[in-house]
Amino acid sequence: MDQLLFFFALLNPFLLSLYLIDLMVAMPSRQFAHVLTRGVIMGGVVFSVFALTGESLFTNLLHVNFASFQIFGGVLFLLVGIRFFFEGVSALSGLRGDPEHVAGSIAMPFLIGPATVSAAILMGASIPKWHAVGVVWLTLLLMVFGLLLLKFIHDRVRVKSARLVDRYVEVTGRVSALVIGTYAVEMLAQGIGRWVAAM
């Protein structure tokens, strides 16, 4: 249960809705659900691979220390959080590629990121590996339902209070950047701790 709650906190539907707000506004519900489902399947496959292989993917295949990934991922995550804080939600839309590849760009960087990959690896190390895979897919399923519910609510509320919704999203997005920054610093601290311990 702890692993599920932690992974769900990283894939928080509310936080993801801020990242994907431009798609939620531009796309009808059916198209958004289709694109989101494709992105989630890509992410689920990647998380499952990392949960099953764990740190061995880094040590045996890439010949690097997992701590190095955590440190570099923490730096990247921190840069995203800083940009998000100062530029708002619009800063993140530029991280996605061309519109025709939108499902892949939902999967990465918004689902498949340093924090979620690290969480999948650590989850696979702390509980039976197939249980970890089950937690991954259950979390993704809950996240999809949460995002579709938020899309439904957003479409109804935005019609009446567009300016208020836009302002709320902007303020909440900047506050959420603090959460991103906190996860980033925690990743850096864990990575540096592992790296020092391995020396």
Q: What percentage of residues falls in helices of 4 or more residues? A: over 70%
Tell me which oligomeric state these chains represent: single chain
**Number of strand elements:** 0
**Helix-strand category:** mainly alpha
Morphology: globular
User: Distance between termini?
Assistant: 33 Å
The tally of structural domains comes to 1
The proportion of residues in beta strands is under 5%
How many helical elements?
A: 11
Largest sheet: none
Poorly predicted sequence stretches spanning 5 or more consecutive residues? none
Membrane topology: Multi-pass membrane protein
InterPro entries: Multi_antbiot-R_MarC (IPR002771)
Family: Belongs to the UPF0056 (MarC) family.
Protein name: UPF0056 membrane protein
Question: How does this structure look, described?
Answer:
The chain is an all-alpha fold and 199 residues long. The chain has one domain (2-198). Helices cover 86% and strands 0% of the residues. The protein is built from eleven helices and no strands. It has helices at residues 2-10, 13-19, 21-26, 29-53, 56-62, 66-87, 90-93, 102-111, 114-126, 129-160, 162-198. Helix 1 (2-10) packs across helix 10 (129-160), helix 2 (13-19) packs across helix 10 and helix 4 (29-53) crosses helix 9. The longest helix has 37 residues, at 162-198. It is globular.
What's the arrangement of secondary structure elements?
Blueprint: H1 2-10, H2 13-19, H3 21-26, H4 29-53, H5 56-62, H6 66-87, H7 90-93, H8 102-111, H9 114-126, H10 129-160, H11 162-198
